[in-house]
Design brief:
This protein is α+β, with helices and mostly antiparallel strands. It has a single domain, classed as Immunoglobulin-like (Sandwich). It has one helix and eight strands.
Length: about 110
């Protein structure tokens, strides 16, 4: 009996992991920093994510630029041009690969 219980528990964990792998970081918030050209990004942590990939795009551009790969769900973007609007997105990284991108958030640098 003990072995069948352990097998069921392992089977359940394997079945649950694909759902976690499909989770995107949400909600993603962007707020102006106290310094010119600074924007803070923050999102809820995702279960089983080991890291997060952060990307940025200038508004009206289809090109995304990777900013960083980090562990914590908080990031400060610096060196942005004041008055320009930027779009940001985040994806969780799992041992199995990278999950889907968050919904994009836009913010104008002050």
């Amino acid at each position: 009996m003990k072995n069948s219980f352990k097998e069921n528990k392992i089977h359940r964990q394997v079945n649950e992991s694909p759902d976690a792998f499909e989770t995107s970081p949400a909600p993603l918030y962007a707020t102006s920093g106290s310094l010119s050209g600074e924007i803070f990004l923050q999102w809820d942590s995702v279960n089983n994510a080991s890291k997060y990939i952060i990307e940025m795009s200038k508004m009206n551009s289809a090109k995304w630029q990777q900013l960083d790969i980090i562990k914590d769900p908080l990031y400060c973007v610096t060196g942005l041009k004041p008055g320009y609007k930027y779009a940001f997105r985040v994806a969780a990284v799992y041992t199995e690969g990278t999950g889907p991108w968050s919904i994009e958030v836009t913010k104008k640098a002050k």
